[in-house]
Amino acid sequence: MPSTFDTVANIISETCDIPRDTIKPESHAINDLGIDSLDFLDIAFAIDKAFGIKMPLEQWTQEVNDGKATTEQYFQLNNLCARIDELVAAKGA
Amino acid sequence: MRIEYFQLIDRIVDLNLADKTIRTEARVPDASTIFEGHFPGLPLMPGVLLIEAMAQTSGWLIIGATRFTRMPFFAALKQAKLRSFVTPGQSLSLTAQLLHEGSGFAMTKADIRCDGKLACNAEITFRLVEFPNPEFRANMDKMATLLEFPREALAHG
């Protein structure tokens, strides 16, 4: 079974046509990979489907806009994958 | 259809929130200044307006699915296919299905049929935002009434 990171990296690679080997756990989706908010909707759609979750993008965006969180907390891939794992775990609880 | 006002559907015929589907109807007007330019001697409903009609149909489905808490804004279009000409006076049957309701976005697939024949289809992505102000929300409510939005459907699904 692929790791959360492998699944997410493959989704990003296929959705945004980014070479898979350039996508690292420490990559920031926006700052390093250049993914814009519209492209991220396609990624969110694929992640939601792949993991059977609904990533709370509205909440995350609000927290960043309010200065309560940094974009790294949600959009650096290792952190994003941790959030996904938490959502998956919460779904199964 | 009030084409110059960008009101591209006439009524909502069915809204099924359990199945996440909607069906609307529209009649292309017999005359419009748009047809004078598109095209002289061969009046055709512009494809971009057919796409907008699918987006409006999808939009009412999303408004229903979110119980009038979010306004959908057209964000992206995929797999759009304009399969046959649509001409003045034709009656259109439009359908949309909600493929995914994410956080702050939604995706639908929609199509238009004329006389039972598939005229066009597409997949559409929307950004969902809170209604920007009470006046906007009230206007959408007014439009929902005009389009015979089946409010009883909100109790199901």
Superfamily at the CATH H level of chain B? Answer: Hotdog Thioesterase
Mind telling me which CATH architecture of chain B this is? Roll
Please tell me the total number of domains of chain A. Answer: 1
| Element order of chain A: H for helix, E for strand | HHHHH
Give the overall shape of chain A: globular
Count of helical stretches of chain A: 5
CATH superfamily caption of chain A = ACP-like
CATH class of chain B: Alpha Beta
| Structural class assignment of chain A | mainly alpha
Number of domains of chain B: 1
Based on the model shown, name its key terms.
heterodimer, A: 93 residues, Non-ribosomal Peptide Synthetase Peptidyl Carrier Protein, Chain A, 5 helices, 0% strand, B: 157 residues, alpha+beta, Thiol Ester Dehydrase, Chain A, six-stranded antiparallel beta sheet, 3 helices, 6 strands, 24% helix
How would you portray this structure in words?
The complex is a heterodimer of chains A (93) and B (157). Chain A has 93 residues and is mainly alpha-helical. In chain A, 62% of the residues lie in helices and 0% in strands. Chain A contains five helices and no strands. Chain A has helices at residues 4-16, 37-51, 57-65, 71-75, 77-92. Chain B has one domain: Hotdog Thioesterase (Thiol Ester Dehydrase, Chain A, Roll), CATH 3.10.129. Chain B is an alpha+beta fold. Chain B starts with 10 loop residues before the first strand and ends in an 11-residue tail after the last helix. Chain B is built from three helices and six strands. A six-stranded antiparallel β-sheet of chain B has the order 1-2-4-5-6-3, covered by helices on one side. The interface between A and B is medium-sized, with 14 and 11 residues.
